[in-house]
Design brief:
Elements: E1 3-6, E2 9-11, H1 20-31, H2 39-48, E3 53-54, E4 57-58, H3 60-67, E5 71-73, E6 78-81, H4 85-97, H5 103-158, H6 165-192, E7 197-204, H7 208-220, E8 225-228, H8 231-239, E9 241-248, H9 257-265, E10 275-279, H10 283-287, H11 290-293, E11 297-300, H12 309-316
Parallel strand pairs: 7-8, 7-9, 9-10, 10-11
Antiparallel strand pairs: 1-6, 2-5, 3-4
Helix pairs in contact: 5-6
Length: 319
Amino acid sequence: MKPTTEENSQIEDHDPKLTDQQIQDLVDKVESGEVEETPEMDQYEEETGKYAVWRGKVTEGFKKWLKGEKVYNRDKDRISLYVSADMKDEWQEFIKKHNISTISKLIRQSVGDYIDQNQHSIKGNNINTNLETISNLSHALKEPLTTIKGFSQLLLENNKEEISNQVATKIESIFEQSCMLENKIKNILEDIKEEPSSYDILLVEDDPATIRLLTNYFENKGYSINGVVSGTRGLQELKHSEPKVILLDIILPDISGYDLCKAIKNDEDLKEIPVYILTAIPGSEVEKKMDEIKADGIILKPFDFSDFSEVIGHLEQPS
């Protein structure tokens, strides 16, 4: 097919379809000066950008337009396609079958659909490219962040007697900021990914020291753990992640751990995840709530690492 272009394109749809006599009557009134302007003249000039009357005479284009014939708009291009007779017959058969008024309309719709489809494909490719870029950035940052966290922990654990409280506070702040940055990177990735992420443990705990302690313990055993400091943040995390086990404190800064546990166990997508209550509240008090919240177990603070043997048992089960 060989395309050609002309400066004008056809205006196919407009209201006036007057008889020859009606048109002649209008011409006589306009050219005699009896009528200076009509709604039809305004509509024609607005649609086509052409004059209805030029130097006191009604234009031929306006007369054709009044008859309902096609006229040309100088603001658009006309495109002609040269096709084989067989293809033309095939197109004509198609427009009859699908109640499309003209071949021109078929071409316009087809080209429009093709452009829309490819624009969506391009957009999807950009998303994939951005995800790959962010994933690479996350990987590049992971090693130095892990190093910062590790050295911070070592300094705090091995040099408690040698460093001042002021220095210890600053080191703790470095560790916490590193954890926050790591979590922010994870959150950005999870918001982009279509598939939910999967890791071993979600820890919902408002005490940073406990998060540090359990993060160090489980990571040394080869398990992945994500710590968040509020119930709201825990719920947000569960929208796009699939932890194998949840460790849940009861006293949180926003919502009760009891309520959070009930929400998890009442959710069809989350209810099978084991939830262990991690709390300093007396065990007898928590036991009274167990049937209501449907938690899978209790670990009391202060805890011993051996208390997590059942949790590790869940983690070692095949997915």
